[in-house]
Design goal:
The chain is an alpha/beta fold and about 600 residues long. The protein contains 27 helices and ten strands. The protein has a six-stranded mixed β-sheet with strand order 1-8-3-4-2-7. A two-stranded antiparallel sheet has the order 5-6. The chain has a two-stranded antiparallel sheet with strand order 9-10.
């Protein structure tokens, strides 16, 4: 009988020249945006703690290291089967594919390719060898489109999580820094590979790690510390019951939501400093709360007013209860549209996880329900405008880029009234240089397809609801066979407009401008997308109101839409032909529409209600 082996390995050692299989009874790949976003944020943040522009490439060897946990392997006569860890290995493989696609140097690409697949007799096989995922992985590796219809759950999640990486990977780690990050990832990130030589031993290890040997979480340790300092038995029992019930509510939302709720609460109310953005800078309140909030509270009990038993009881019965309750409210609004809090949902769809501590910042336990809702609306509206402006200007909203700005927002609105919160945030938007007008060439490109989809859904829904129609936003954002897709008003035929564009690349750039895009059912694109504009126009009249607005008949017997135009002054007009002039006019219309939807005046209007 062979012994059980555990060995720490770098990503290169783990995936280089290795091939891992997954048994048919293993669960699907089920990571959600939250897990992928956290992985990208954690890895890039750790890398950026060490990296500075101008470093020699060899300096990466001395950058900080990162431990990514363990995986459990069953070795069956030399063939490795993953018992525990396929979620992380799949996600790492997606990150490696992303880096391979983004790097330009052939040698740098090759070292990543060797960790993604092996090649024999001209045939490529992926190192994470799961046959029903191979076509999808091949499409991602080669940059080809892949239809998820009638595919297993894992395939849809793999494609969606790859898009998450594209959206969330921070600008600071791109460009000249990207080869350094790739080196760091494969050489300085470690996992422990635990290998057993029978399935029975492998599953015993897996069960021991996940059941009998489960260690206390930071939430558990914080609970123990706080309760131990409540000397009154009745108060301690009441606090314990409240804690247990609230943690269960959080965990019903998802794994580690209890910890996320506590982090959002503590950052929103108590973070006074954040790590400076330079090499070897010390982690401060904001950072430490994110990694070890249980220790952070214990080390700062004096600053938090935790001196006697009643203080610890209050900390749970008032503060913990109130702020985690509001976190749950915000998370629920993030997951689904809630009347009055729609902006929270829109921000969550952009995967802007930093919004939750910002939302909690102005709230006070003594606020009335009306005041709480008013503050949540003001802050979420501010974030909605800020995020959309940045995206319109092709700026990143990833965690690394935005955390310092969000820390300063939290600091500046903490505990403020609704009117003062609106004034502070309104001034920030007034000082913001990234307005819609600053980029009148906003367009679709290879990386912002999902962003454009969301913005078109918002714009389409706004025109319809302001014209008296029912909201269809959820329909425009739904997935599946009836999903909506971005429709180009101009089909991809540069020869049709060669009199206006000297080169196909000029036509392609103009074709992708925001004014030449609509959101229409996938079936429409399949049936009519390739037709000349004049032939598509009658079919647009049967679609959503933003598409119908191109047709002359939309301006007849349509009082709700005509009233909307009159009230807003937006330059809607029919277009029987669509040439370069119409593209410019339509793009200006969309820009004006965006300024109307994401108008900073909404903050003061909300504060006044």
């Amino acid at each position: 009988m062979k012994e059980i082996l555990g060995k720490a390995k770098t990503i290169r050692e783990l995936l280089g020249g290795a091939k891992y299989s997954i048994d048919y009874y293993q669960r699907e790949y089920r990571w959600q945006p939250k897990q992928m976003t956290e992985l990208v944020e954690d890895l890039t943040a750790k890398f950026l703690e060490s990296h500075e522009a101008g470093d020699e490439r060899g300096a990466v060897e001395h950058y900080g290291h990162y431990f990514l946990g363990s995986i459990v392997i069953s070795d069956r006569d030399g063939q490795k089967f993953i018992i525990d860890g396929q979620q992380r290995l799949t996600s790492l493989t997606l990150l490696l594919i992303y880096l391979h696609r983004e790097l330009s140097d052939d040698e740098e690409k090759k070292q990543l390719a060797d960790l993604v697949f092996s090649q024999k007799y001209g045939k490529r096989s992926f190192n994470l060898d799961v046959p029903d995922r191979t076509p999808c992985m091949e499409a991602l590796y080669t940059g080809q489109a892949f239809d998820t219809n009638d595919q297993p759950e894992s395939v849809g999640n793999i494609l969606a999580r790859f898009e998450d990486i594209e959206e969330q990977f921070p600008d600071e780690a791109k460009g000249a820094a990207l080869p350094y990050f790739a080196d760091w990832l494969i050489e300085n990130v470690h996992l422990v590979e635990i290998t057993a030589y029978s399935d029975e031993d492998a599953y015993t290890i897996f069960e021991t790690m996940n059941d009998r040997g489960l260690s206390l979480t930071p939430t558990d340790m914080l609970k123990g510390y706080l309760l131990a300092n409540i000397t009154d038995a009745d108060a301690r029992n009441l606090a314990s019951k409240l804690w247990r019930e609230r943690v269960a509510e959080c965990q019903a939302l998802g794994k580690e939501e209890d910890a996320d709720a506590i982090k959002a609460w503590l950052r929103s109310q108590h973070a006074r400093k954040i790590r400076e953005r330079k090499r070897d800078a010390r982690p401060e309140d904001f950072d430490l709360i994110g990694t070890e909030f249980h220790r952070w509270i214990r080390d700062r009990e004096g600053l938090l007013g935790l001196a006697k038993s009643a203080d610890f009881a209050r900390f749970i019965q008032r503060d913990f209860k109130f702020y985690t309750g509001q976190y749950l409210r915000a998370r629920t609004a993030g997951a689904e549209l809630v009347a009055g809090l729609e902006a929270i949902h829109f921000n969550a769809q952009h995967k802007f996880t930093l919004q939750y501590p910002v939302l909690l910042a102005p709230l006070l336990p003594d606020d009335s329900e009306a005041e709480i809702l008013q503050k949540l609306r003001i802050v979420s509206t501010f974030l909605d405008i800020l995020i959309t402006r940045r995206l319109w200007n092709w700026r990143s909203i990833d965690y690394s880029t935005m955390q310092y700005a969000m820390f300063t927002v939290i600091r500046d609105i903490r505990g403020k009234s609704a009117a003062d919160t609106a004034a502070v945030l309104g001034q920030r938007l007034a000082d913001d240089e990234e307005t819609f007008a600053r980029n009148d060439r906003f367009a679709l490109h290879g990386m912002n397809g999902r962003v454009i989809h969301r913005l078109l859904a918002r714009m389409t829904d706004y025109v319809e609801t302001r014209s008296g129609l029912a909201s269809r936003y959820a329909e425009y954002m739904a997935q599946g066979k009836k999903r909506y897709e971005i429709e180009h008003v101009w089909a991809n035929h540069p020869e049709r407009q060669k009199d206006e564009f000297a080169h196909p690349s000029d036509f392609a750039a103009a074709r992708n401008r925001i004014g030449g895009l609509l959101l229409l059912p996938k079936s429409f694109n399949a049936s009519y997308g390739d037709l000349p504009y004049e032939d598509k126009l009658p079919h647009y009249f049967g679609q959503n109101l933003l598409a119908r607005s191109l047709h002359p008949n939309c301006y007849e017997n349509n009082p709700g839409f005509l009233r909307f135009i009159d009230e807003t002054g937006l330059p809607f007009k029919p277009m029987t032909a669509f040439h370069a002039t119409e593209m410019e006019d339509r793009s200006q219309l969309y820009l004006r529409l965006a300024e109307h939807i994401w108008n900073p005046d909404r903050l003061t209007e909300t504060a006044a209600t």
